[in-house]
Design goal:
The protein has about 375 residues and is α+β, with helices and mostly antiparallel strands. The chain has nine helices and eleven strands.
Amino acid sequence: MFSSRTNHGALGRSAFTLVELLVVITIIGILIGMLVPAVNSAREAGRSVQCKSNLNNLGKACLAHEEAQQIFPTGGWGTMWVGDPDRGFGEQQPGGWLYNILPHTDMNNLHDQQFLVNGQSISGKTPPGQQPNNTSKQQAMQQMVGTPWPIVLCPTRHRTALSAFAGGATVANNCGGVSAPSSGQVARTDYAVNGGSAALDQYGTGPAVGADASSAGGTQAQTAYFGSRTTGNGAFTQCTGVCFERSTIRKDDIKDGLSCTLLAGEKYLAPGCYGMGAPGSGCDSQSLYVGMSSDVVRTTSQTPMQDRAGAAYLVQDVLGNSNVVAFGSAHPNAANFVLCDGHTVAINYSVDPGTFTALGTRAGGDTVDFSKL
């Protein structure tokens, strides 16, 4: 009996009461509540590091382009044109900065627009001594604008690499007016090049539709287009940055110093524009391979902004969530940038406006105080 009572008491003491169980559950809940933010913060830190790595690689490609061509990548012609492998790397190239640096990455075949379609090899690049095949070029260009490039997407946004094309005859323009316009899903980018310190209100479309030199009247239309602008470094005098319409900026043109001038960075995008739906106000409207466009060029006329949407956002920014001028990102405290010397830097959303504006000029004579970033 004595032994039985002792064992019974031991068994009784080993059981949990309801109160003890609730206490344990509460403690576990508190620990999880403390752990989740720490895990999310660690994940975000990793995503920000990846974002900086993307920009670092893009910066290296731009510098390699400058070494090979003696100019930073040009901004191309306008929103109605995409990159053309037959047109070199200067003012005659309708494609923008991202298209032009493809040969200095592992995407050279994309630059030359070499694809296998329905078992047949097509290319947008014309072999030496031959006339352009506009039908083949258009097929290749349509393949190109729908080809994602993972390095130009920030992992924090969890953004789709493709979204609906906003309309227009972008690819047909390059191909002498061949009738079928591009359509369907096109590739997007989260990064934009530095167009300067002034809000650019002249994101042009380039030459008129069908103005390719190989089309009827195309040469005349292009001559009129080139004659209507001041060429070279003087094109668009308000473009004080590194890359803009038909730009041909060299390292020597960056008088403020390569380490004090922005090359490219994350662009602002409203969260409603992350998905694959049709582009709306402030969303991307063209592919990442397009010429001068707010999709691929931004300015330092406004400080970088965190992606936001809704009424609370509209109170803070008079442009609302349709801002197509500013840099910005989905990161919680700062947006990432790469400077013209290839170094990356995170710039706070609370950055001094004058300091950020100065970073957008290549020859403004400004002194940049990096302690205010």
